[in-house]
Amino acid sequence: MTPESTVYIGKKGTMAYVLAAVTQINQHGATEITLKARGKAISRAVDVAEILRNKFLTDAKIKDIRISTEEISGDEGNTIKVSAIEIKITK
Amino acid sequence: MTPESTVYIGKKGTMAYVLAAVTQINQHGATEITLKARGKAISRAVDVAEILRNKFLTDAKIKDIRISTEEISGDEGNTIKVSAIEIKITK
After folding, report:
1. Mean pLDDT value of segment A3-17
2. pLDDT, tens digit, for every residue of B23-39?
């Protein structure tokens, strides 16, 4: 069993998510981190992955990147389609 | 030789790039399209890929997704690091 952990990327600053991922690895022993983001946060997820790989986890590798379309329920019973990304990083 | 084509995703509306990619395939015989984007345009590149795959090129597959960090020269001789994505789609 590989200890896995997911970090959901939202509207906070990039470094908040970098710190969350580093904490999962250093304090909770995760060896695989999945960054998940939707919509405009996708760019931030890529920033987080690149900062992790270049500065904080230089021995880490990007194992897989997947993109998809998710449907979100709107306030008025409608559905909105939004792009999503999953970036899997292994130590 | 596989006819390859690159579409650079910038600040225009998403559909402008979807149309550019469809034109490369339908009129110019490209069988492989690479979408490239940097910074905030990364989210738009994912949107373009998802719209292509779900609506216009339903037989297309995402062959590869790579992320990287590029250095851009600033106005004052400084360099700025920016995340980049390449999404390769094959017909």
Report:
1. 94
2. 998 888 889 999 999 99
One-letter amino acid at B13 equals G
Which tens digits make up the pLDDT trace of A57-76?
A: 888 999 999 999 999 888 88
CA distance A42 to chain B (A): 5
A43 CB neighbours in chain B (<8 A) are 39-43, 83
Judging contacts by C-beta atoms under 8 Å, the chain B residues touching residue A17 are none
Phi–psi pair at A30, nearest 5 degrees: -65, 140
Domain of B10: which CATH number? 3.30.110.20
Residue A86 contacts residue A66 (beta carbons within 8 Å): yes
Q: What is the number of domains present in chain A?
A: 1
Q: What is the domain range of residue B49?
A: 4-90
